[in-house]
Request: fold
Amino acid sequence: MSNYFEFVSQELLIKLAQVKSYITKHNPTIGVLTEEIVRGFLKDHLPTLVSVEQGFIINAKGELSKQCDILVYDSLTYSPLYRVNDIVVIPAESVLAVIEVKTTINKNIFHKVIDYFKSFSYLPNAKTYLFIFNSSSIEKIGCYFHSYQHEGDYKLFDHDTFQYLPDEITGINESYHLCKDSVITDRDMIGYSSWFYEDSKGSEINALQHFYSSVRMTVDDYIEKNYRNINPQKPNSCSDLKLKSIFAIELFYM
Reply:
């Protein structure tokens, strides 16, 4: 399975390279096609009970969200409230995952992504993901967090602002998958951690596999809770794998 996801990772990066080889001077189009690459991957691998599309979320007050690159939602119980071509408007209670896709990342883009995810704190079931094809190193991502300009005089994230950050951050080419976590060191911090595993053959479990496993687990947990007559086949967990190393980004004290 590890080799499979390594092949798929390379395939996704090749598809992106193909897009950029033909479309060299129109970044919005590159962005749209990059999102479609990830949507196609998820459509091929997630249970058919959910749909994977782009569009907007509307809450109980009738407020419309910012446009979402990828929405994973329960399409068995809920249908879009509105659709035009491949863009949908769906109710907040149907959403399982909101995924923001970036071709590349830098400090300014990362800070805009943090601001973007602030608007999704009201979602009852959803997890939020940042998916980056050509990412900065994991160390630079840590620097981007620490250079974020907070409102007012306070210069660090805290328990209130932490909830607005993406739940998980995946860097495909750098092969890391950061998850919100309690970072237990001699300072007991809250932040993100990336756990690096290998399988029984010594092959590294890459970032795409971690990303897929997380989205799939979110979907499967929702199915078990809401459709008790359906027993989804869950992907293998990391419990049978060998832990190689851990990287942590410390944001604030517990």
Summary: The chain has a mean pLDDT of 88. Strands lie at 50-58, 68-74, 82-84, 87-91, 95-104, 127-134, 168-171, 176-183, 189-198, 242-253. Helices lie at 2-22, 27-45, 107-117, 138-146, 159-162, 207-226.
